[in-house]
Amino acid sequence: MAAKKKPRSAAWFGREGKMGFIYRSWVKNRGVPHDQFDGRPVIGICNTYSELTPCNSHFRTLAEHVKAGVWEAGGFPLEFPVMSLGETLLRPTAMLYRNLASMDVEESIRGNPVDGVVLLMGCDKTTPSLLMGASSVDVPTIGVSGGPMLSGWYKGERIGSGTNTWSLSEELRAGKITEEEFHEAESCMHRSHGHCMVMGTASTMASMVEALGVGLPGNAAYPAVDARRNVIARMAGRRIVEMVKEDLKLSKILTRKAFENAMRVNAAIGGSTNAVIHLIAIARRIGVKLDLEDWDRFGKGVHTLVNLMPNGKYLMEDFCYAGGLPVVIRELGEAGLLNRDALTANGKTIWENNRAARNDGPDVIMPFAKPFKRDTGIAVLRGNLCPDGAIIKPSAATPKLMKHKGRAVVFEDIEDFHARVDDPKLDIDEKCVMVLKNCGPKGYPGMGEVGNMPLPKKLLKKGVTDMVRVSDARMSGTAYGTVVLHAAPEAAAGGPLALVRNGDVIELDVGKRKLHLHVSDKELAARRKTWKKPKLPMQRGYWRLYVEHVNQASEGADLDFLVGKSGSDVPRDNH
Ligand code: FES
Question: What is residue 367's DSSP assignment?
């Protein structure tokens, strides 16, 4: 019979002599009895709690529920903090620090006596950063999302995070509401713990955790303050102990099949465009080949089933009561659009977990045969303006603008945009294409969520609600509009976007997956000769490391030296 594999934590806690003394004794300082070091699975609880990340401010409680589960299953939990990334306070953008946080996660897991890990994730970037870091170590892993906030309500209507921030601020700019009403709405929008409660990036990524099989069924939709959220945390604590015993590593769950499922689920939920970058980055860490074209391929023929903001009218709380993501997964499975045998963290296949899901809210989750919106997977665009691709989210766009030709109105960077967009003399009408440069990974830096540029005030006043916008930036998952994003290579890396001038004609044809700049190659070559690389905003530290090493959006915007994994081998002793 093969000898039972020792847990990696035994290289710390199972030692004799001086090193065993050092590794155990300091841990005992908070009252841990000696029998906790008897070789039982040691479970790291990777916590992104921070008051600077309001969406994760309940994570201390969540961690206690995970611990209870670990103890119940005979494991030994050790909670540790990692860099937490909040979308609302962190500047210039949380995305700049996603890769830094992933390094923190990776090294914290590998360098410590951790046999398995539970990842506590909520606000947008906390999910990909933790999954990327854990993928590069590849120990048994479960993801637990913090859950969405309760619905916002104002004047008898649902108001959703971000989505109604954009619409209310446009109404304020257009003079349709007062400052007082605006402030009142601000207080009514976010009224409980949890992350944004629209199908924005946080809810999308929580759905990806469930669809990838890294989280337990129900992970995406239970509100943060619902007792069932704590139950999920506790069950994750119990289950991770078993996963360590089964040696069920993350790479056995994060397979190509799992990513294919996730891309289809993203289309079916009308998920955030940010998921494209994050999933590519996670896949490249774990060693699965995934590229931009896969998003188009696997999104094809998938319809949006959920009527949730920013594409529809309901919120995550409604989604939960309707049955949540399991219903969507069942619909995809029945439509033949699911790898049913993909393994999940609870040891069952995704189909076993979801095949009996019941739809209790047919107005919130529509059946595949009568979907909310048809054929709405992420569209990947190509053309001389984006040789390495750009994307658009058709479910959030205006159908009549999906085929459009217009005169470019160019903003050189975000400051230029803010300085001129509301200038009454700005030469622009609703048929123009708004172009924003230098907001990509290197340019912003960190790819700001500024691609959904607010429309000029004078056009809002005329009643214009959408225009074609093109940039190398990202867009908040809570936002909407006919917005072409992630143009690669970006302007700051010398991509063709850098060469666009006012008055050029840009053609968008989503049906043909085309984004074309009607300027000759000869003229573009001449313009390139005069192009100057923008100066780095900060010459030292992490910003410099980031700008020098970040990959383009089409490759997941990871740092080039972080792609791949180094495994979970135990490093040499520290004394
Ligand atoms: Fe944290 Fe939206 S701001 S999820």
Answer: -
Q: How distant, in Å, are the alpha carbons of 7, 18, 20, 73, 366 from that of 11?
A: 8, 13, 9, 22, 52
Tell me the pLDDT tens digit for each residue of 199-242. 999 999 999 999 999 999 999 999 999 999 999 999 999 999 99
User: What's residue 396's pLDDT?
Assistant: 86
Q: Strand pairing partners for 47?
A: 81, 120
What would the pLDDT profile of 8-41 be if each residue is shown by its tens digit? 999 999 999 999 999 999 999 999 999 999 999 9
Cβ–ligand 1 distance for 197 under 6 Å, the answer: no
Assess whether the C-beta atom of 199 lies below 6 angstroms from ligand 1: no
Instruction: Specify the ligand 1 atom closest to the Cα of 476.
Output: 2
Ligand 1 centre to CA of 326 (Å) is: 23
Q: How far apart are CA 481 and CA 476, in angstroms?
A: 11
Inform me whether the pLDDT recorded for 195 exceeds 80.
yes
pTM over 0.85: yes
469 CA to centre of ligand 1 in angstroms: 24
Q: Where does the pLDDT of residue 403 fall: very low under 50, low under 70, confident under 90, or very high at 90 and above?
A: very high
Q: How far is the CA of 507 from the centre of ligand 1 (A)?
A: 33
Burial class (CB in 10 A: 0-12, 13-18, 19+), 450: buried
Ligand 1 pocket test target in 87, 121, 476 with most atoms within 8 Å of CB: 87
Question: Which atom of ligand 1 is nearest the CA belonging to 195?
Answer: 4
| Closest residue to atom 1 of ligand 1, CA basis | 123
Please report which confidence band the pLDDT of residue 151 belongs to, taking 50, 70 and 90 as the band edges.
very high
For the CA of 161, the closest atom of ligand 1 is: 2
Q: Taking the C-alpha atoms of 15, 17, 22 and 28 in order, what is their torsion angle to the nearest 10 degrees?
A: 70
What is the distance in A from the centroid of ligand 1 to the CA of 51? 13
Centroid of ligand 1 to alpha carbon of 382 (angstroms): 31
Reference 437, options 455, 450, 421, 420; nearest CA is 450
Lowest mean pLDDT among 125-134, 199-208, 532-541: 532-541
- The half-sphere exposure of 299 on its side-chain side, counting CA atoms within 13 A, is 29
Which residues pair with residue 382 across a beta bridge? 514
pLDDT tens, residue by residue, 46-79: 999 999 999 999 999 999 999 999 999 999 999 9
